[in-house]
Design a protein that fits this description.
Layout (H helix, E strand, L loop, with lengths): L2 H4 L6 E11 L9 E7 L19 E4 H10 L4 E5 L9 H10 L3 E6 L13 E5 L24 E6 L2 H13 L7 E6 L6 H11 L4 E2 L3 H6 L6
Parallel strand pairs: 2-4, 4-5, 5-6, 6-7, 7-8, 8-9
Antiparallel strand pairs: 1-2, 1-3
The structure holds iron/sulfur cluster.
């Protein structure tokens, strides 16, 4: 057991950009009322990132304080997101504490950092960065072997070249046999109907998704 996991809750501090209740906009949990805990900071710079406001700033909070605010929203589902949540060492303790408090917890992570230490009760929604993101070299491929049926693997695709790359990865690593695979278009870059057509044409064993929160509110922040 790591020092992070054994540290008392009062000793764990995290940098937080925002906490809010909304509908889950992505993954197989789409549409579920959810509390979002957005951690500050990310070591990546994806070309199409829509949460750059979480790169810096935020407020330092204790774990106890965070848990109390999450509990106050009165929702079972909690999504820990960013930025890149795993860039903060206190994230593992936060995830475990949310599970201990009885929440159904998901983690949105870039795929660039080690996911091995994440509490097994958490559903890991992990990106595999396509070439169009500009962060292809950051993919930590060792993570793929750690995914299981509880987890989901997400590709965000900017163009036909990204789609061809994703299709190759899905076949090479037999990804659809490990977990749900999600494909979504970069908003404003790839026509969603075109991507949907490619998936059907190629009979890909994946789930197409659009970002519900953008359809509803055209905004990634504070919804
Ligand atoms: S990993 Fe996520 S938060 Fe970080 S730059 Fe990429 S899209 Fe933005």
């Amino acid at each position: 057991m790591s020092a992070v996991e054994t540290a008392p809750a009062t000793a764990v501090r995290l940098r937080i950009t925002e906490i809010f209740a909304s509908l889950q906009g992505e993954s197989t949990r789409v549409g579920l009322p959810t509390v979002f805990v957005r951690l500050t900071g990310c070591p990546l710079r994806c070309s199409w990132c829509d949460t750059a406001y979480a790169f810096s700033g935020g407020e330092t909070r204790t774990l106890d304080n965070l848990l109390a605010e999450v509990a106050g929203h009165g929702l079972r589902h909690v999504c820990v997101t960013g930025g890149e949540p795993l860039a903060q060492k206190g994230c593992l303790a936060l995830l475990a504490a949310l599970c201990d408090a009885g929440h159904d917890v998901s983690l949105e992570t870039s795929g660039a950092l080690d996911i091995a230490g994440v509490d097994p009760r958490v559903s890991r929604i992990m990106d595999l960065k396509a070439p169009g993101s500009g962060e292809l070299a950051r993919n930590r491929l060792e993570n793929l072997a750690l995914l299981n049926a509880r987890d989901e693997l997400k590709f965000v695709l900017a163009d036909a070249a990204d789609y061809a790359w994703a299709k190759q990865q899905i076949a090479e690593y037999r990804l659809a046999e490990c977990c749900t695979v999600l494909l979504s278009p970069v908003a404003g870059a790839l026509d969603p109907a075109e991507l949907a057509g490619w998936i059907v044409r190629d009979r890909l064993p994946v789930r197409f998704q659009l970002q519900l929160h953008k359809i509803l509110w055209n905004d990634a922040r504070g919804r």
